[in-house]
Write a structure and sequence with these properties.
By secondary structure, the protein is α+β, with helices and mostly antiparallel strands. The protein has a domain at 12-129: 2,3-Dihydroxybiphenyl 1,2-Dioxygenase, domain 1, CATH 3.10.180. The chain has helices at 22-33, 86-95, 154-165, 222-231; strands at residues 12-19, 36-41, 52-57, 60-67, 76-82, 99-107, 111-117, 123-129, 144-151, 168-172, 179-183, 200-206, 212-219, 235-236, 241-242, 247-252, 258-263. GO terms for molecular function: lyase activity.
């Protein structure tokens, strides 16, 4: 399942980061993950002044790196969810208690999108595929694996994502490592050997800070990647901790976008 050509509606499909200095961001992630950027293309729906690059590995799309379209747009990573019709999905998110922040907008020929916030303020995207369905390569070192929602109100979030995208929740772990798994019934994703159901599409944890989505990328060694990131101007936000796939480390890039890496060892 590491190569994907399509995503069913309701499955997170793409991650992208918006940065004040897009050239510096390209240099950081190229050095950290050995991504090869292609582009630039225009920022869909965000004005004609910015630049949008698609990062690739082995010629396959893995993530987007773009100019920050406006000062009020935070430097961050955005996770987008595949939808069949972005206008209808934005209306469903609004009915469920969310807020449409941007769009819906055209990003032809790649697709059509929108940016919304859940009731606690966690920002995420909606993506109606055109030429680009989403990430073509996942679940490999230097590629995106899954995104995590940290929220101060898990019950409210569970109700929102159920109403908006059809997700169900399942408890996982105990004590300080307890989390909730978001599942999309009937979906088969992930990897056959993974320790959780292949219906799982995202993870949710309770957090005291602002609600936010954070993408996780697999790497050969999380602590080595953290040291490399520090040498490039990034920093670790907390010590590494153990998760079912391997040791995980939350990082902040030099311009303030937060992401995590999980060490899964070297894989072909």
């Amino acid at each position: 399942m590491s190569q994907r050509n399509s995503y069913p509606a309701g499955v997170p499909c793409w991650v992208e980061t918006y940065q004040p200095d897009v050239d510096a961001a390209l240099a950081f992630y190229d050095a950290l993950f050995d991504w090869q950027p292609t582009g630039p293309g225009p920022l869909g729906g965000a004005g004609s002044e910015g630049r949008y690059y698609v990062a690739r590995m082995r010629g396959l799309d893995v993530a987007g790196i773009a100019s920050q379209p406006a000062a009020e747009v935070p430097t961050a990573w955005l996770t987008s969810i595949a939808v069949g019709n972005v206008d209808a999905a934005a209306e469903a998110a609004t009915r469920a208690g969310g807020t449409v922040l941007t769009g819906p907008y055209d990003a032809a020929p790649a697709g059509r999108g929108a940016v919304v916030a859940d009731p606690s303020g966690a920002v995420h995207g909606l993506w109606e595929a055109g030429d680009r369905a989403g990430a073509r390569l996942v679940n490999e070192p230097s590629a995106w694996a899954m995104s995590q929602l940290s929220t101060p109100d898990p019950d409210r979030a569970a109700a929102f994502y159920a109403a908006a995208y059809g997700w169900t929740t399942q408890g996982f772990g105990a004590g300080s490592g307890a989390a909730m798994l978001f599942r999309l019934p009937g979906y088969v994703g992930g990897e056959p050997e993974q320790p959780v159901s292949r219906e799982v599409v995202a993870v949710m944890v309770a957090g005291d800070g602002p609600a936010r989505w954070t993408p996780n990328f697999w790497v050969a060694d999380a602590e080595a990647t953290g040291n490399h990131a520090a040498g490039l101007g990034g920093r670790a936000l907390a010590p590494a901790f153990k998760t079912p796939p391997g040791m995980t480390l939350v990082l902040e890039d030099p311009q303030g976008a937060v992401f995590s890496v999980t060490g899964v060892g070297a894989r072909p």
